[in-house]
Amino acid sequence: MAEFSVILVEDSMSLGALYSEFLCSEGGDVKLVQLGEEALKEINRQPPDLLVLDIKLPDMSGMDILAQVQQTHPDITVIMITAHGSIDIAVDAMRAGAFDFLVKPFDGKRLSITVRNALKQRRLLKLVGDYEKSLPKANYQGFIGESLAMQTVYKTIDCVADSKASVFIVGESGTGKEVCAEAIHKAGKRAEKPFIALNCASIPKDLIESQIFGHTKGAFTGAVNQRDGAATQADGGTLFLDEICEMELELQSKLLRFIQTGVFRRVGGTKDEKVDVRFISATNKDPWQQVQQGEFREDLYYRLHVIPVELPPLKERGKDVLLIAKKLLRQYATEESKPFKGFSKQVQTALCQYPWPGNVRQLQNVIRQIVVLNDAPEVEFEMLPQQVKTQLSQTAKPVSNASETVQVSTQLAHANPVEPFADQAQLEVGSEYQNTPEQAMPNQQVSSITNEQIEALWKTEKRTIEHAIAMCDGNIPKAAALLDISPSTIYRKKQSWDEMEAAES
C-alpha cells in the first residue's frame, strides 16, 4: 500500500518515467501528467500529499501553478524542478511556498532525500496542528475565556454550526447568549447570510407578531406600509429568539407552525410565505420548568430544545474573569484616552473573589465605570465601585496582596495532600499550618521524620500530574485545565523528569 500520494508534472516522458520510478521506490502512489492544466484538474479532483512540479511546461509556468496551489491547497507540499536553475529562480520558488528546489539532472538518491524530508515536515506540521487544536482556546468567535467550562461551549458550537437543528441556549442574564447564537451562525454554512436577533421580552405583546412575521399595509392602526418581519429578513440565515419564554402562548402556537413548515403569514395578509431559517432560542429561565408551569408550550419546547447549550455563570469560570477584565480595560482605556495598563494584585484577587451576579455584562459596566471616573496607569482597589467592595467585605475570604492561589480538586488533594506547583503559584495554606517548625506537620513530631520519608519535590509533582492525566483518560490539555496550568508546562516537566530519572539511574 502506498505511503503517500504524488502528482508529478513533467513534460518529458522519459524523465517522467524515471522520476516516477524513483518516487514509487519511496512508497509513493504517483500520477504523472505533462501539462499544467491537467495538473490543476488532478489537484482539484484529488489533492495529493506531494506535488513535484517542473517550472517550464508547454502550456504554462510552474510558478503560476505553485501560486494557485498555495491559494487553493496550501497543505500540499511542493517540490520544484528545472533544467535551467539559478539562485534567483530558487529563491523565488521558496518564497512562493515551495519546500525545495531541484536542478536537473539529479539522481534517485537526491530526490529520495528531498521527498523524505518533505514527508517528515508534513508529519511534524500535523503533530503541531493537532497539538494546537487540543490547546484551550482563549478567544473564540467573540468569546474570551479558556476555562474548561468554556472549552465545552466552544466544542459544542463547532459541532452544531453546520447543522440545521434548532439550538436552545440557557444561561443567566449577562452570560453572552446572543454572542453564543452569533458564534453558531458565523461558524456555520450560513455565515454569509443574515443573522437576525429578536428579544421577545423587550417588544410589546401586541407588536411581537408583526415583528416576527411582518405586516401588510393597513393591517392595524399605524401600518401605513407593508413591512418585512424577522422571518423574512432572516431567509437563508439564522433567526435568534432571545428570552423566548416571555412570548405569549397564543403566539407560541403560530411560531410552532412556522418552525415545523417554514411557512408563515404576515399580520393582515392572505398569502402564505415560505423561508429557509435556522432557529436559535435562548432564555435565562429553566425552560422545562416553564413548561410544567404552563407558561411555555411543551410541543414548542421539543421543537426548539433539540441541541441544548448551557452557558456557565462568570463565577464558575475561574481566571476567565481576569482575561475578560484585561481585554475590557485595554478597550475602554483606548476609547477614553486613559493610561490604564493593568490591575494591581489586590484588584486581581478581588475580581476573582467577587461572585458577579450580573455576569459579563456587570463586569463590563464595572470596568467602564473605573476607566471613566479614574486616571492612572493601574487599577487600584479603591477605584472599585462601592457595591463590589461592600460585597467583598462580607465574604469570609479577605482581599489581600498575597499571591494567587491554586484551587485543587478534592480527588487530587486526597491522592496527594501536598500540591507542589511552587513555580506556578503559591498554595493556600490552612489555618492549622503555621510558620513555626513545631507546627509545620500537624499530628506528627518533627523529630520523627527521617531522611527516608522525605521525597524529592519533583517526584511528588510528577505523581500528582500523572494522577491528573490518568483521571482525564490521558487528555493532557484537560488535565492541565483542572490543575490550572498550561499544557506546555506539563510537556516541559515530563521532559525534565526523564532527565532526572536518567541522572539517578
TrEMBL record:
Annotated Sigma-54 factor interaction domain residues: 143-372
SMART domains xrefs: AAA, REC
Domain of life: Bacteria
Domain Response regulatory: 5-119
UniProt xrefs under InterPro entries: AAA+_ATPase, AAA_lid_NorR, CheY-like_superfamily, Homeodomain-like_sf, HTH_Fis, P-loop_NTPase, Sig_transdc_resp-reg_receiver, Sigma_54_int
UniProt entry keywords in alphabetical sequence: ATP-binding, DNA-binding, Nucleotide-binding, Phosphoprotein, Transcription, Transcription regulation, Two-component regulatory system
Coiled-coil stretches: none
Residue positions where 4-aspartylphosphate is found in the record: 54
Record-linked SUPFAM superfamilies: CheY-like (SSF52172), Homeodomain-like (SSF46689), P-loop containing nucleoside triphosphate hydrolases (SSF52540)
GO biological process, alphabetically ordered: phosphorelay signal transduction system; regulation of DNA-templated transcription
CDD domains listed in its UniProt record: AAA, REC_NtrC1-like
GO molecular function, one term: sequence-specific DNA binding
PANTHER family reported in the protein's UniProt record: PTS-DEPENDENT DIHYDROXYACETONE KINASE OPERON REGULATORY PROTEIN-RELATED, TRANSCRIPTIONAL REGULATORY PROTEIN
Protein name in the entry: Sigma-54-dependent Fis family transcriptional regulator
Organism for this UniProt entry: Shewanella maritima
Record lineage: Bacteria, Pseudomonadati, Pseudomonadota, Gammaproteobacteria, Alteromonadales
